[in-house]
Amino acid sequence: MAGAPTAVATVLVLALAATGCGDDGGDEGRRSDGAGDGPTSASTRSTTSTSTRSTTSTPGTTTTPGTTTEDAAGSPTTPGTTTSGSPPPATTRRDPPPPPASWTATCPTPTPSPRYGCRAVRGTVIAIESVDPDGDGDLHVIVRERHPDGGVTLPGISVLDVRPALRPERDPRRGEWVTGSGPVFRGTYRQKQVQTDVFRVWRP
């Protein structure tokens, strides 16, 4: 509990500093101390205040008494904005153009699937599993298909199981176009997926 009063005191000090209450008290004390000095003290404070504001001007600019350097020089430009104060135009990210239809993998393939048959998949990568938990070196690619009837695993979503012999030198990245075809089997979690006999990544 020893830290609680210290934390509360810190918050109170920050709050007073933000609202300026501490400065008001100091000004009041100074006014009280100078009350007996008469008109000479008041004029001295006025002259000193005017001189201080005049000497804080930026070289090369003329500061009129009663104005600050910020008033004379203008507001600084905030980083990330133009001189007019508006943010810079946002860059639009464009998806890569789709590959030609002739690039797409087709069925049938050499490996049969008596129960679910062969499926050809074409779409963009959502995610990959580069390291297969069972240790067989397969690459799993989750693909979003773009045509209405697509989707082996879920509506519009297909999982491609790519064996080591078919893996490209660099794994596909999110957003890249891929295609694959092969027999459909059940995966570890009983999900349907394509065990690819053909797999390609579109890199023009």
Structure in words:
- This protein is α+β, with helices and mostly antiparallel strands and 204 residues long.
- It has helices at residues 3-19, 21-33, 39-55, 69-73; strands spanning 118-129, 139-145, 157-162, 177-186, 192-195, 198-201.
- The protein folds into two domains: 3-54, no CATH class; 101-201, Nucleic acid-binding proteins (OB fold (Dihydrolipoamide Acetyltransferase, E2P), Beta Barrel), CATH 2.40.50.
- A five-stranded mixed barrel has the order 1-2-3-5-4.
Secondary-structure topology with pairs:
Elements: H1 3-19, H2 21-33, H3 39-55, H4 69-73, E1 118-129, E2 139-145, E3 157-162, E4 177-186, E5 192-195, E6 198-201
Secondary-structure element series = HHHHEEEEEE
The total number of structural domains is: 2
Would you state the CATH class of the largest domain? Mainly Beta
Radius of gyration: 36 Å
* Average predicted confidence as pLDDT: 72
Number of strands: 6
The name of the CATH architecture of the largest domain is Beta Barrel
What low-confidence regions span 5 or more consecutive residues with pLDDT below 50? 1-58, 67-73
Structural class: alpha+beta
Strand order of the largest sheet: 1-2-3-5-4
Assess the beta-strand content as a share of residues: 15-25%
Enter the CATH topology name of the largest domain.
OB fold (Dihydrolipoamide Acetyltransferase, E2P)
Helical content band = 25-40%
Terminal Cα span: 66 Å
The biggest beta sheet reads: 5 strands, mixed, barrel
CATH superfamily annotation of the largest domain: Nucleic acid-binding proteins
